[in-house]
Amino acid sequence: MAGSTEMASLEESFRKFAIYGDTKATGQEMNGKNWAKLCKDCKVTDGKSVTSTDVDIVFSKVKGKTARVINYEEFKKALEELAPKRFKDKSKEEAYEAICQLVAGKEPINVGVTKAKTVGAVERLTDTSKYTGSHKERFDESGKGKGKSGRENIVDNSGYVSAYKNAGTYDAKVKK
């Protein structure tokens, strides 16, 4: 049979798949869904000689009559059942060795996990260079906000009309 290090990594794979997707799982028992995931992720099911139906049938065979889960010993029995079906050209022992090598050291693969993207509308709406009108006044050239001065019209109480060229020159003329 397999070496002790391979058996340890096989048991480690069993535990990782047993707790996959279940927050309350202890890693001692595996349900049918996780058994099917293990067989799919570790390439035990090939679609020709071993199908998902075969995987479900083997799971039903090895579990107890009223049980819904299998333990590690039943898991090894299930692999023994699938081995000759998956590796038809090998002897029963060689097939079991080969199927253990497929499963050993593997862990669940997260396929189709949704990742957050900041493109499209969010990118367009937060780009200050595209702002127009009064909103454009709230940011400087680098895109940094001006704060209160960008939101409010600050009144010039100097007494001069806005944009007057000679503002502040009256006192200099009068004092002469």
From TrEMBL:
What is a single cellular component term in the Gene Ontology annotation? microtubule
Instruction: Tell me if Cytoplasm is a UniProt keyword of this record.
Output: yes
Kindly give the Pfam families that the UniProt entry links to this protein.
Answer: p25-alpha
Is Cytoplasm found in the keyword set?
yes
What InterPro entries does the annotation carry?
EF-hand-dom_pair, TPP/p25
Q: Where in the cell is it found?
A: Cytoplasm, Cytoskeleton
Q: Which UniProt keywords apply?
A: Cytoplasm, Cytoskeleton, Microtubule
Record region (Disordered): 130-154
The molecular function terms of the Gene Ontology recorded here are: tubulin binding
GO-annotated biological processes: microtubule bundle formation; microtubule polymerization; positive regulation of protein polymerization
Q: Which portions of the chain have biased composition (kind: Basic and acidic residues)?
A: 134-154
Q: According to its UniProt record, which protein family does this protein belong to?
A: Belongs to the TPPP family.
Q: What is this protein called?
A: Tubulin polymerization-promoting protein family member 3
Q: Which organism is it from?
A: Centropus unirufus
